[in-house]
Design brief:
393 residues, alpha+beta, single chain, 4-stranded antiparallel beta sheet, 40% helix
Length: 393
């Protein structure tokens, strides 16, 4: 299945058998997955056809033209962008068949239990413990900055299973049922007034060994697949020209000539060009992904995404003057997804501050680009060969 014409024909036949106007949304999505039109590059039986990733655009164009429902990708972005590629690469056949379909249809929302209060930038220093008891692992610890935990049915989780080896080697990767006893989710109210993030407390949570992803102690290597895909998902999303944060600013500039100054004009032109360069770089990165899994290059895209969002939103607040200081609603909400362009300038300015933290801090990503992309010497690391239990904390 490598021919665009054949894939287009198959999609049209699917639409004829499942007319979007008369087929229920969930029924349509399930049937689309079964037909291999969810992720065409995934294997047959797992939502795909073993086709090149680039041909997904052929399917999406046909479905969009027919008015077909989507799976609300913003709501289930962690599952689609992080959990799914990791499960595909490291999961057992049973795990793939159990988790991928409801993940893609949105019946089961996923979250990511990685960061901890004492292990954010230095994620490998995490202290959440998982102790083997027969066919289960008993997990205790705390995770933080967990998007969608209040909605999630499942979580990807990394925990320390061997404290007697260096920190990167004693970690194991699990799939955690968020409805299990001992899982407590608490909201974290942000500067925007909302609580899209959460902290999660794990107290004697029992995870079956059948829900371990990869080998025990090999969790750091498995997690790299998740992290590389996360950075691409955040920084390399597909956008039209003037999509994303630059769009509202350009619109205001065109519609409000009384706000213009020469200095603001020069700054807007610079940021517009940089936003377009970033958009085109993202397109090239996605083309490179056709050849395989994302690598450290995604860190560069995520860096640019954070820097541009903060610069553009700052310019927008300046452009609007007093209007830019207004904020419409501080009501405490627990939203299902982030809406950068659906709110006012004040929200964009405040929310973009988190872009340089979430998905890996900009400082950590600079190190990744320097060492793994540019090949520069690594920073000295005194804890590299020290057992985790002996590290100063």
């Amino acid at each position: 299945m490598t021919d665009a014409a054949e894939l287009r024909r198959r999609t049209r036949e699917f639409l004829a058998a499942h007319p979007p106007a008369t087929t229920g949304r969930l029924e349509f999505l399930r049937a689309r997955f079964d037909a291999g039109l969810a992720w065409v590059h995934f294997p047959e039986g797992l939502g795909g056809l073993g086709a090149p990733r680039s041909l997904q655009a052929v399917v999406d164009a046909e479905l969009e033209a027919a008015g077909a429902p989507d799976n609300d990708p913003r709501r289930i972005g962690i599952g689609l962008g992080m959990a799914a590629p990791t499960i595909l690469q490291y999961g057992t056949e049973e795990q793939k068949k159990r988790f991928l379909k409801p993940l893609w249809t949105g019946e089961e929302v996923w979250c990511q239990l990685f960061s901890e209060p004492g292990a954010g930038s230095d994620l490998a220093a995490l202290g959440t413990r998982a102790v083997r008891e027969g066919d289960h692992w008993v997990v205790n610890g705390q995770k933080v900055w967990t998007s969608s935990a209040h909605l999630a049915r499942w979580a990807i989780l990394i925990a320390r299973t061997d404290p007697d080896v260096p920190k990167h080697r004693g970690i194991t990767y699990f799939l955690c049922d968020m409805t299990d006893p001992g899982v407590e989710v608490r909201p974290l109210r942000q500067i925007t007034g909302e609580a899209e993030f959460n902290e999660v407390f794990l107290t004697d949570v029992r995870i079956p060994d059948a829900h371990r992803l990869g080998e025990a102690g090999d969790g750091w290597r498995v997690a790299q697949t998740t992290l590389n895909n996360e950075r691409v998902a955040i920084g390399g999303m597909r956008l039209p020209r003037e999509g994303g944060m630059i769009g509202p600013v350009a619109k205001t500039w065109r519609e409000r000539p009384e706000l213009r100054t020469h200095d603001l004009h020069q700054r807007l032109l610079t940021l517009w060009v940089e936003a377009e360069v970033a958009r085109l770089a993202g397109e090239r990165l996605r083309q490179q992904l056709v050849a395989g899994q994302p690598g450290p290059e995604g860190a560069g895209m995520k860096l640019g995404f954070a820097r541009l969002n903060q610069a553009i939103s700052g310019l927008e607040v300046e452009l609007l003057g007093e209007e830019g200081l207004r904020y419409d609603d501080w009501t405490m909400r627990r939203p299902e997804h982030v809406d950068f362009t659906g709110r006012e300038a004040g929200y964009r300015y405040l929310r973009s501050k988190g872009n340089s933290i979430e998905g890996g801090t900009s400082e950590v990503l600079l190190n990744i680009v320097a060492e793994r992309v540019l090949g520069l010497p690594a920073e000295p690391r005194t804890d590299k060969d020290v057992a985790w239990k002996d590290l100063a904390r």
